[in-house]
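Appendix C: a fully annotated inverse folding record. The material below is reproduced so that readers can follow the format used throughout the book. The structure is listed first as tokens, followed by the designed sequence.
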């Protein structure tokens, strides 16, 4: 039975019990805040997923080793403006220096500190700016502290990304919140994005890992902006265990409630990232129905939402459905080319792979919405899947042509 989860409208990354945050300007970027931290009052059980790019930034190497060894994280230090990627042995030393400085600042074990960086690739870290400012991080549990953290992790993002939900587990209120950044180089598994999720649920690291991988596969790994995969991507979830319910496993009667919390938080953040694609004006959601498997449905959906021609179709408000069908056809999934139904929003464009008369004016009007849904029914089974992306605009080229200047 589906468990009830409830959105907390003004919840933040510090709403779950035990979490604090901070963010400030350290001089890595020109103006905006660029250094942030999430801190837990006790070592939190942790799980994380990372970029599949073969070129991995130093902070990912450090965090992956730390999480694998300790299974617990008490602080996550994050900087924006510099990715600390392709920086050689010095880059790894700098990531470990950030870890050690954060541990010293909060009086905790450096083996319980995760490190994340995002920004320009190939520049050595300005450690003379970063290390002294780690000492100045003033953590707290107010909305202002959470807001400062959210701002500190942004690069080309145009807005801060966060969400928060709660559910009842064992009669206890369990809260889960997330904050993320991501705007370009988005082609998970995963794309230039960082996701931070906090919860006060009681759950062992191995079960947290299982739940996170499932959630990421159905959310963050179903978004695309430009087909590029970054060197720095990470989603990490921390569980403070302060909700004081029975320990969650798959055998727990409220396991589904926890899974739904994690899925919803992840989906909210993923959709916010897709909506904020560099230069984007619209969120595109593609739903593929009646595939043989959910993985097939998701792969077809990602192929469609990742198509540059579909993206420009949506930007130009032109219901050129041939672009959608072509993208479904090269998805790598065997489909019957003679039985496909397709619609944009409420407007049917194709039935059994044959064109349907429709009003171009109505289709254009629908495509002008800031959220556009494309539905494709492949009639091969009974499994559905979704993917999210954004339109491709003139501004995407402008932003990326001048990224370093």
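Designed amino acids, in order:
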């Amino acid at each position: 039975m589906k468990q009830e989860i409830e959105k907390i409208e003004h919840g933040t990354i510090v709403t779950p019990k035990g979490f604090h945050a901070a963010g400030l300007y350290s001089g890595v970027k020109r103006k905006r805040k660029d250094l942030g931290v999430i801190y837990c009052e006790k070592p939190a059980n942790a799980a994380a997923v990372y970029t599949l790019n073969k070129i991995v930034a130093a902070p990912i190497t450090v965090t992956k080793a730390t999480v694998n060894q300790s299974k617990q994280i008490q602080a996550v230090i994050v900087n924006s403006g510099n990715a600390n990627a392709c920086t050689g042995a010095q880059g790894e030393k700098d990531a470990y220096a950030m870890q050690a400085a954060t541990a010293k600042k909060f009086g905790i074990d450096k083996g319980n500190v995760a490190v994340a960086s995002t920004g320009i690739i190939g520049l050595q870290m300005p450690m003379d700016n970063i290390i002294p400012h780690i000492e100045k991080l003033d953590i707290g549990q107010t909305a202002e502290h959470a807001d400062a953290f959210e701002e500190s992790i942004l690069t080309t993002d145009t807005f801060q990304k966060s969400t928060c939900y709660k559910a009842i587990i064992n009669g206890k209120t369990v809260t889960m919140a997330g904050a993320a950044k991501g705007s370009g180089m988005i082609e998970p598994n995963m794309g230039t994005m960082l996701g931070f999720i906090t919860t006060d649920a009681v759950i062992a690291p191995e079960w947290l890992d299982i739940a996170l991988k499932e959630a990421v596969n159905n959310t963050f790994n179903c978004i695309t902006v430009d087909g590029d995969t970054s060197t720095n991507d990470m989603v990490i979830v921390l569980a403070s265990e302060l909700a004081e319910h029975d320990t969650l496993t798959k055998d727990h009667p409220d396991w589904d409630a926890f899974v739904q919390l994690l899925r919803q938080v992840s989906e909210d953040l993923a959709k916010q990232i897709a909506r904020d694609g560099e230069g984007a004006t619209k969120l595109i959601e593609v739903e593929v129905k009646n595939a043989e498997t959910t993985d097939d449905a998701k792969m077809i959906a990602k192929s469609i939402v990742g198509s540059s021609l579909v993206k420009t179709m949506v930007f130009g408000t032109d219901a050129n459905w041939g672009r959608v069908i072509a993208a479904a056809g090269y998805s790598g999934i065997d489909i019957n080319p003679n039985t496909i139904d397709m619609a944009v929003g409420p407007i049917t464009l194709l039935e059994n792979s044959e064109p349907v008369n429709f009003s171009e004016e109505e289709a254009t009007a629908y495509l002008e919405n800031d959220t556009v849904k494309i539905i494709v029914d492949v009639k091969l089974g009974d499994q559905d899947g979704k993917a999210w992306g954004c339109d491709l605009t003139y501004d995407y080229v402008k932003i990326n042509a001048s990224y370093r200047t």
